[in-house]
Amino acid sequence: MQGRRILLFSLFFSILAGSLIYYVLLPRTVTHPLRIDSIPADAYAVPWIRPNPAISVLNSLMSPWNVDAVMTGALRLNITFRIITLNETRVVSSTIYLSHDLDYLYIGGRFQRMFTNPASDSNLTLPNYFNVLFDVNDDGELKSPESGSALGVLVYEDDWRTSGWYRDLVWVDYSKDFHRAIWMFGDDYYKDYLYKAQPSVAGVEAAAEYDNSTGTLAILFSRHLRLSEIADINALQMRSGERWVMGFLLELGYATWYGELSDFVDGWPRKIYPYLSNDCSWWPKLVIDLTNPPSGFT
User: Fold this and answer.
1) CA–CA dist 272, 137 (Å, integer)
2) Is 141 exposed, middle or buried (0-12, 13-18, 19+ CB in 10 A)?
3) Nearest CA to 188 among 179, 198, 178?
4) For residue 192, what are the domain limits?
5) What is residue 147's three-state secondary structure?
6) CA dihedral 278, 279, 281, 283 (to 10 degrees)
7) Which residue of 12, 95, 183, 215 lies most exposed, with the fewest beta carbons within 10 A?
8) pLDDT score for 78
């Protein structure tokens, strides 16, 4: 009888230990199933196209370039932004260009009559900027982590050349500094919330040009479709063979020094700045499909 009890106890312990190994250790070694979303009828599908010439080439040119020609075949969204500034409403007729390959989403823009930042003065030039924001899980609710991109460009009245920066954006459910939910720069989130420096996001490229005679700003930049180094704040981590449908929103604006959450901004399909709600159920849908790469993209 004693031996039988020991045998039953050993069997029970083995089953318990095996279950523990299965549920704790197995997820670390077994890849989760690929995410392949169904495509809604009204979704915007992003085509497989690389900029031509490449963004690095555009940066080496000593003359203006045409974003429409560089992004031939890309998804195009014709949008009118109406940005309320201190003294006027700037009506900016815009075309947004979207394409992708296996590793990057390429985002371009042509913003007619945007002109220079009205908050700038003789001592300081503040950036014009363009943001793209994602509801990565497409569940209609923003919650950490989400994913976004910001391109800021300094433009000048007397020169077609520009300077600028790219920064990741992260959704913060509640900011201790702003006392509300906000989108903030990823490097600031690392510094203020995680108390460390953001890992490198090498590989992102950006180019911009400004026509001072017409006030037209053109931009083009890339953003990673996956980057494990910043996965803790960036939920856009697509794998080859996946197809994702995501809510998305676009913003065009001017940075200011007039106080917290005071930038001059408009959004598409509508303005939500300064982010009083995490409801994104009304955002349009964007499809990035990595399931069947065309020839030349494998």
Assistant:
1) 19
2) middle
3) 198
4) 35-289
5) strand
6) -60
7) 12
8) 98
What pLDDT was estimated at residue 7?
41
Indicate whether 83 and 196 sit together in one domain.
yes
Which tokens hold the place of 210?
């400004």
Does 8 share its domain with 39? no
Per-residue pLDDT at 106: 98
Give me the count of residues in the chain: 298
Q: ω into residue 269 within 30 of 0, thus cis?
A: yes
Q: What end-to-end distance do the CA atoms of the chain give, in Å?
A: 65
Q: Indicate if 8 and 55 belong to the same structural domain.
A: no
At residue 162, the pLDDT reads 83
Identify the pLDDT of residue 160. 65
pLDDT under 50 in the chain at which residues?
Answer: 5-9, 11-13, 15-29
The pLDDT value recorded for residue 156 is 84
Instruction: Report the phi/psi class of residue 276: left, alpha or beta, with left for phi > 0 and alpha for psi in -120 to 50.
Output: alpha
The label of the residue with tokens 């077994």 reads 30
Half-sphere exposure of 250 (CA within 13 A, CB side): 22
Amino acid 147: pLDDT: 96
Residue 90 domain-assigned (yes or no): yes
Summary count for the chain: helices (H), strands (E): 5, 13
At 176, list the tokens.
Answer: 């201790």
Query: If we measure between CA atoms, which residue out of 127, 111, 129, 106 comes closest to residue 55?
Result: 106
Q: What is the pLDDT of residue 225?
A: 97
- Tokens representing residue 95 in the block: 């075309």
pTM above 0.85, yes or no: yes
Burial class of residue 78 (count of CB atoms within 10 Å of its CB; 0-12, 13-18, 19+): exposed
Structure tokens at 156: 């000048």
For residues 20 and 123, membership in a common domain is answered with no
């196209």: which residue's tokens? Answer: 49
With beta carbons less than 8 A apart as the criterion, state whether 169 and 185 touch: yes
Neighbours of 126 (CB within 10 A): 18
